[in-house]
Amino acid sequence: MKRRSIRIALNSAVIAVVLVCIAPATAPCGDLPLPEMQHHLAEAEESFRRAMALDQTKPDEALNVYQKSIMHFERIIDEGGVRNGRLYYNLGNAYFRWGDIGRAILNYRRAALYMPNDPNLKQNLEFARSRREDSIERKQAEKVFKTLFFLHYDVPSNVRLAIFSYAFALVWVCAAVLLFTKRGGMRLLLVVSALVSALFLASLIVESVSLARKSDGVIVADQVVARKGDAETYEPSFTEPLHAGTEFSLLTRRTGWLHVELEDGARCWLPAASGELVLE
Question: Which residues fall within 8 angstroms of residue 216, CB to CB, at 6 or more apart?
Answer without folding.
Answer: 109, 247, 248, 249, 250, 277, 278, 279
